[in-house]
Amino acid sequence: MSQLNIITQARHLLQHPEFRLGARHMSQVSPGLAAWGLMTGVAMVNSGMSVWEAVAMSLLVFAGSSQLAAIPLIAAGAPVWVILTTSFCVNLRFVVFSAQMRPFMLHLPLGKRLFNGYLTADLSYVLFTKRFDKPASDEAGRRAQIAYFQGGTLLNWASWQTASLTGIVLAHSIPSAWGLGFAGILALAGVASSLATNTLRRVSAVVAGAAAVAAFALPFKLNIVVAIAAAVALAMLIDNMSPDKQVLKNKN
Amino acid sequence: MMPTNETDAWTLAVIVGLTVITIVTRSMFFISKSDWKMPHWVEQGLQYAPIAALAAVIVPEVVMTQGQLITTWQDARLFALAAGLGYFFWRKGKGQAVLGTIVVGMAVYLPLHIIWGW
């Protein structure tokens, strides 16, 4: 009975015009993402992870920058809490996204909210908020918005996984001496640059980078945590002290 | 060349932890239906933490080798990163700028690294 219900629901979703539109919009931007997924797959195996670990990480974690940040830490045998703290900090941008997605999600039961949250990668959020600026007021409208969201996110998930798994397989035929894993660092640099939207964020990046090098001798990769703390503290300090915030925080 | 990496329980546990972090951070504001507000200082810190975390991971991977600051400029990573960032800011981050950063960076990195051995 309930199984039938799920199948009917899924069919309605797949046939919804907004589902198709969401998938179409996503398909225009997914080639770039696929290249990144491919590199993440290569980087995981080149760092010393087993194929099963890499496959599990790809299918479960589904977060490129968080995975790429965790890879060198896992390889170095850093303590779990350092790895998780770093990944949490890299993911904090999603917390900001979730605040904006909240009114669109609240009408759903908890399980579906968490499922949709899990699927909200950078591009899903960007495309969705570009199309809808306020939550629908009726049932049909809400269903249309969720259909658009899932059309985009499910395609995004599938193309990311295809690319990442391809990368895992490819990593076996490409010598690790070529250093293809460095593409992962370049991908992180690209994401970091897209976050560098005001002066204090750039200050935060410079301070964190310098501190991570200066404190490199600390055990357990603590240099990463120390660098984040130092950079955030300094940026907040400058932010709170500056008499004219407009100077430093020129438009976001 | 066939990496023969082994699967271990510790790495799998880390993977499960990272999965929980993906779900929690991406759903943070709609896990609970009740209204709640972040303290102001947390909201402020949220602005600066992601880029700090990324920089803290990236910079040592570019300017250090085996725990030591590199002493030569003949390192493929420096030129690759400069080229990649140059492309990103030239494109002003528009369109497929992150993809371009990777492609341009690797186009500089691979010949320097493989042919010249930098």
Give a description of the structure:
The complex is a heterodimer of chains A (252) and B (118). Chain A folds into two domains: 2-177, no CATH class; 196-248, no CATH class. Chain A is built from 13 helices and no strands. Chain A has helices at residues 2-15, 17-46, 51-61, 64-75, 80-90, 92-105, 110-119, 122-131, 139-170, 182-195, 199-214, 222-241, 245-248. Chain A is globular and about 60 Å long. Chain B has four helices and two strands; from the N terminus they run H-H-E-E-H-H. In chain B, helix 3 (76-90) packs antiparallel against helix 4. With 118 residues, chain B is mostly helical.
What is the strand and helix layout of this fold?
The complex is a heterodimer of chains A (252) and B (118).
Chain A: H1 2-15, H2 17-46, H3 51-61, H4 64-75, H5 80-90, H6 92-105, H7 110-119, H8 122-131, H9 139-170, H10 182-195, H11 199-214, H12 222-241, H13 245-248
Chain B: H1 9-27, H2 40-63, E1 64-65, E2 68-69, H3 76-90, H4 97-115
Antiparallel strand pairs in B: 1-2
Using DSSP, what is the number of strands of chain A? 0
Report the uncertain regions of chain A. none
Biggest pleated-sheet summary of chain B = 2 strands, antiparallel
Order of helices and strands of chain B: HHEEHH
Gyration radius of chain A (Cα, Å) is: 20 Å
C-alpha end-to-end distance of chain A = 51 Å
| Shape field of chain A | globular
| Biggest beta sheet summary of chain A | none
* Count of helix runs of chain A: 13
Helix content of chain A: over 70%
- Find the structural class of chain A using helix and strand composition: mainly alpha
Q: What integer is the average pLDDT of chain B?
A: 88
- The share of residues in helices of chain B is 55-70%
Number of helices, where a helix is a run of at least 4 consecutive DSSP H or I residues of chain B: 4
